[in-house]
Amino acid sequence: MPDERIPGKLIGAIVAVGSLAFIGILTETVMTVLFPQLMREFNVDTATVQWITTIYLLVVAATMPLSSYLNRRFKYRTLFLAAVALAVLGSLIMIVGHAFPVILIARVIQGMGSGVATPLMINIILEQSPKSKVGRLMGVGSLVITVAPAIGPTVGGAVSSILPWRAIFVIVIPIILLVSLPVGLKCVEQHRPTEEARLNSLQFVSIVLALCGLVMFLNQAGVAVSAAVSGGSATVSAVFAVVSLIVGLGALLFFGWSSKRSFSPLIRLGWLRDPMVLLHLIAYMLLPIVGIGFGYVITNVAQLSLGTSAFLSGALVLPGALIGAFFAPVGGMLYDRFGPVRPILGAFFAAICGPILLLVFSMRLTPVTLAGFYFIFGFGYSLGFSNIMTNALRNIAPQFMPDGNAVFNTCLQFGGAAGTALFSTILSVAQAGAGEEGGATFRHATAVGGSWTFATMIGIVAIAICCLIAAFRIGAKRNSRL
Fold it and tell me: 3-state DSSP: the chain helix, strand, coil percent, rounded to 5?
């Protein structure tokens, strides 16, 4: 029998590298709950302020395609130190920045750090874990990351009630330097040799253009619709949206075409010919639209419709996100024991009940029901989400795992960026022409926007469930032939 014990250094490496992603997601969710305050401080509207979150997620998504190249070219410890440096630099700029564009630059730098750290953690787990423990360790990796959305809104609300919001970044720097850095230097190990991989710059530029174009399309389409609803001019935004869509789709098609013909592609995509893996990937991209976007929706509906404080709106996210985060390793253990079908589908059939209940009670919500229904979603989502990538990557050849990891993590972050842009657009459209923030008409309009958002969430989760069911049917047919 092989030694199936989990090495202590592996756990330390997961915590050290994952904590950097934790810091990035924590600050992202902290900023989300502060959107109303930031809108007043920087004199920007809802569609503009959401770029603090969207640009972070977009940069993370744009950095992750490099992870396959970085994983082959550089040692893990070098990548870890680069992620630490980027996280600290971004936090320092957030502390001293007093203009909205400077804040966005800081988020770009922090996004690059998280874009290096997250796939690095996944690669360490996949390469260094005992085979019988992969599911639970992927759950632990998910726990490291998903605890951040659980406590982020509460931290943001609590800190902003007693300190300036920049104090959050003063706090995280010592955590990075005194906890993440020393643990990582001691525990991050190299188990495979590096290669003389080459960076395909043209393909990298094309995938960045694709991601930026598609997210800009969502954002500008929303601005155009919002302007049209409120009686303003939507021509410029509409043209920009169409151009962004053309650029995004064109760049994505070029990336796929050039990858097939390149001797050294940025990401090897041949494994996507497997329809079962492709269906897993589609579900893995769709679900973060809801999972990450929920933090924005809950906190803003609570403040702008129900009239709660920033602290209370952040606290509403805590129960569902925290219980879901700590159940992620449980989902991994269920996967290791029962396989993929029941743990994954059961989790998401439970999760979809949350937005269904939110839609049914959307015009009669209270802070308690808002938190309770989100609790249902958060529990199911975290129980099953990390198992989707685990199951997909187990069905591709080991030499393509870095490529699969890069694609799955890129789609996760793109889904999150798209979700924030999509849901902020829906709320902006509903709020258009509804008067000043705080008025009865504005609160009602926000509640209506919330109901539209919850209906959209139901549709997205339902499509993801259908993709997973189709994938499992393909897998079952393959197994029956063996």
Answer: 85, 0, 15
